[in-house]
Amino acid sequence: MAITLQLVRRADLGGAAVSTLNLLTGEGFDIEYYDGWMRSVAPGMNPYGSVVDTVNLIVSAATTDALATAIQKLDQKIQETSWYWDDTFENNSVWLRGQLTNESQAYWALVREMSYEIGDSIFSPYIIRGNVMRRVSLAVNRIPFWEGVTIKSHSDTGVTSIGGKADFSGTVVDGDIPGRVGTIYFYEAASNLTEVWAGFRSTRLGGLASFVPVWDLGLAAIDRDADTTRVTGEATAYGTQYSRCAFTAVQTMLTRVSIEALDVGAGASQRGEFTILLRAKVAANTTCYVQLADGYTDGSNWRIQSAVKIESNSWYLYPIGTVSFPATRSSTVNDLTKCRLRIMARRMAGTTLDMDCLIFIPSGEGSIYINSGTAIGSNYLTTYTHPDGRIEAILENSATGEPIETCDVRPQRWGIPNGTGNLIIAAQQAAVSVLGDTVSVLTAEYWRWRTLRGAED
Prior knowledge:
By secondary structure, this protein is mainly β. It has 2 domains: 4-148, Beta Barrel (Elongation Factor Tu (Ef-tu), domain 3), CATH 2.40.30; 155-449, Sandwich (Jelly Rolls). The chain has helices spanning 64-86, 125-128, 333-337, and strands at 4-11, 17-22, 29-31, 37-38, 51-60, 92-99, 107-118, 132-142, 146-148, 155-160, 162-167, 177-187, 193-202, 214-216, 223-224, 228-232, 241-245, 254-260, 272-282, 287-296, 303-304, 308-310, 316-325, 339-349, 353-362, 367-371, 380-385, 391-396, 403-406, 408-412, 421-429, 438-449. It has a 15-stranded antiparallel sheet that branches. It starts with a strand and ends in an 8-residue tail after the last strand.
């Protein structure tokens, strides 16, 4: 353990320091004893806002020219900071790194901007004769949270593409706020997958094992209208069963399938916000539209969402809306077990609509959608979250790291929650959702703190 206060220029994700300016000793700098580093604390939880720290420095040297050299090092770090923010092709950013004398772990924060004021007249005898600037007040505008200086990681392999749980529970995420997922890789040997939905689920809202990410629409106990029947013995369906609507009597929009939390054994652990995916297909030459409605089993007020076109003759994942369980803030389990979803459907042409299952992708604690447009193959579908908050996705060569193409990426509150949890995943190929497809995942994370890090890893 050693006291540290440095300005470090480096690339993200484990990049070695390009240059370091020590603000304590060795390069002409020291800090005031009592008010040397006035650290600001963020008023909220936005990881990409800003706060301003004041570092009151003493700059001294053997000669006036050496004093100029010392202060020019500070000017250089100010210039390097502007390079990163003004030039999107600049990979190296400047970080304020700190560690107290008896603090076990170091941490740093990305610098947005810096400026300083010299407290003495430039003609004062302290500068002219003593080669000392008694006070240089450095204002450091930085992101409002501190990141650990080492990369942390979670991984899981062979996760089912139909609402699978990537088990991240083995490593506790330290910190005061959700960590930054610097990179997340989705991959599988010779994979044909092109689209991935993923959302974190921590223990904050309920047990990991009792959360039910897939609701089977082929269950015998769920409600169906007169035009909809249960089909069993289908190996390509989740649970080998599904619901089929033939639109025999009514072709207009009508509730075809209705399912509640109790039907799938979901209870208190189902609390949260979710993107809902419907796995469905239609018969040849058939076009249907479906709408998701959510509410309480015994109620009559239903929130009906926008219609989604179903036209694939193969099983396919369709985002059909979002839900919050429960619809109102409450702590009672019954509010959750009575949460019900309805799948409404109308037929425009053709014959039958098949509805296999609903997949719940958690969105309240960090979620992301990526579409490469090209099969992953043996490569990586990779998302980068830069320290300034920019999020990019590329398909990259797994052997060389070279980019193959840019990808569509849509994050929502993207970050890894504190504590333990899972990553709920759904994925599919360009034209089909295959029941047996799997995906593996690997992350590189930076955990975050508001003030001091202490001994937390």
